[in-house]
Amino acid sequence: MLYQEQHHRQVTRMDQKKRVERTRSAKEEEEEVILEMVDMSGMALKSIPDPSINTRFICKLDLSNNDLQTIPESLTARLLNVMVLDVHSNQLKSLPNSIGCLSKLKTLNASGNMLQSLPRTIENCRSLVELNANFNKLTQLPDTIGFELINLKKLLVNSNKLVFLPMSTSHLTSLQILDARLNCLRSLPEDLENLINLEVLNVSQNFHFLATLPYSIGLLLSLVELDVSYNNITTLPESIGCLKKLQKLRAEGNPLVSPPMDVMEQGLHVVKGYLCEKINGMHNNSPKKTSWFGKLARCSTFNGANMPREDGDNYIMHNERSIDSLSSPKYLGMFSPRRLLSPRSYFSR
Question: Where is this region: Disordered (predicted)?
Answer without folding.
Answer: 1-27
